[in-house]
Amino acid sequence: MSAISTVPASRAVSEPSFFEFVLIIAFMMALGSMSIDNLLPAFDPIRADYGLASTNEVQLILTVYMIGFAIMQLFYGPISDIIGRRPTLMIGLVIFAIGSFIALFSTSFEMLLAARMIQGMGAAATRILSVAIVRDRFQGREMARVMSLTMMVFIIVPIFAPSIGSLFLLFGTWHTIFVSMLVLAVLLALWFGRRMPETLHPEYRMPFSVKRITDGARRCLSQRTTVGYATAMGLMFGALMGYLGSTQQIFETEVYGLGPIFPVVFGSLAAVMGIASFINARLVRRLGMRRLSHFGICGYVLFSAAMVAVALIYGGKPPLMVFAVTLAGCQFLFSLTMPNFNTMAMEPLGDIAGTASSLIGFYTTILGTLVGLAISQSFDGSVLPLAIGFLAAGICAFVTVVVTERGKLFQPHHADPLPSAEAFGH
């Protein structure tokens, strides 16, 4: 059975449709993405306001956000397994709002960094609970389909986020961007609170027990599939973080000097990822998670190798269209891997979805942040460090998948049954 139909007996709110469910989960995930992407055009104003030496220093507002994001992922999952998904999300949104408020009144760059870490600590709830809630409802290929649809909506955010950030800068300062984050957190709290029922199944609710939490953690670490695909996911996420950290310098200022055209290029590349997520959602039930994701990681390595080649041929500054094509290929294939990697990592752990989501999220975020920091801080005025970072992360992820699958790629482990009926009235 793909869709889990056993639901709590009593609920305070009505059941959302499948479409609304996807939109709510996508909004949850998009809050974290918006908190990164709409700040990208503000790098130079922030650097100027605080008298920083280079834009590389401003990248720390992404790094500390992700550190806070990673650390708190350890806590939200176990907490949600104890008290439920709904109250845990509200706690996270309150923390996120506090961080947004502090950022509005930051009098130093250090204070802004502290505010960003608090924001990340709050936003972690949206990431952990979005995965846990989907796992509460679905499993197997159907879960991969839902995650792909959610990812497709989620990826629409980067298409518009830098443009929205630029618009705020046109009519105000970078502080107005943090006002928008605060507003989004309030809107999410209202929508989720009114429309999303508690999805934690009564039989899976855990009383507080350090032993049960540690037993859950031990079980996660004992699953070969979980550890392997979480590692591959963290490496791929690191390549994405490296791209986000250096994209403003590559496209807007130092390499291509696109200026106000930067949000258009950034959004176009994000649209490619959205298309790939839609294709994945359409094909995953027919072809399976392993076939699609293994094809994706193999193709990713080839495209990133092509990116390194063109970067070397043109001395680190290839023509914009040539670089954009190789980068778009990598981003397209990235979106064929991540939702499926995530689903396969979570698949054996449905009864401890919150704890599993926390541990997987913490591990992949820490790994991704460190890899991304190494890539973005290597920026030297050319695209070569990013290209090499993509290739290195891709090769390491490919090797990890090969080891996890014991050399047997493109072969499903079992025939994932398709649902005879879905939740939400389908």
From TrEMBL:
Topology versus the membrane? Multi-pass membrane protein
Residue ranges constituting the Major facilitator superfamily (MFS) profile domain according to the UniProt record: 18-408
Q: Where are the transmembrane segments?
A: 21-40, 60-77, 89-107, 113-134, 146-168, 174-192, 227-246, 258-280, 292-314, 320-341, 353-376, 382-403
Membrane as a keyword of this entry, yes or no, is yes
Which ranges of the sequence are coiled-coil?
A: none
User: Does the entry feature the keyword Protein transport, yes or no?
Assistant: no
Q: Where in the cell is it found?
A: Cell inner membrane; Cell membrane
Question: Chief subcellular site?
Answer: membrane
What UniProt keywords are attached to this protein's entry? Cell inner membrane, Cell membrane, Membrane, Transmembrane, Transmembrane helix, Transport
One cellular component GO annotation, for this chain's record? plasma membrane
The superkingdom listed in its UniProt entry is Bacteria
Q: Name one GO biological process term.
A: xenobiotic detoxification by transmembrane export across the plasma membrane
Q: Which family does it belong to?
A: Belongs to the major facilitator superfamily. Bcr/CmlA family.
Q: What is this protein called?
A: Bcr/CflA family efflux transporter
Q: Which organism is it from?
A: Kaistia soli DSM 19436
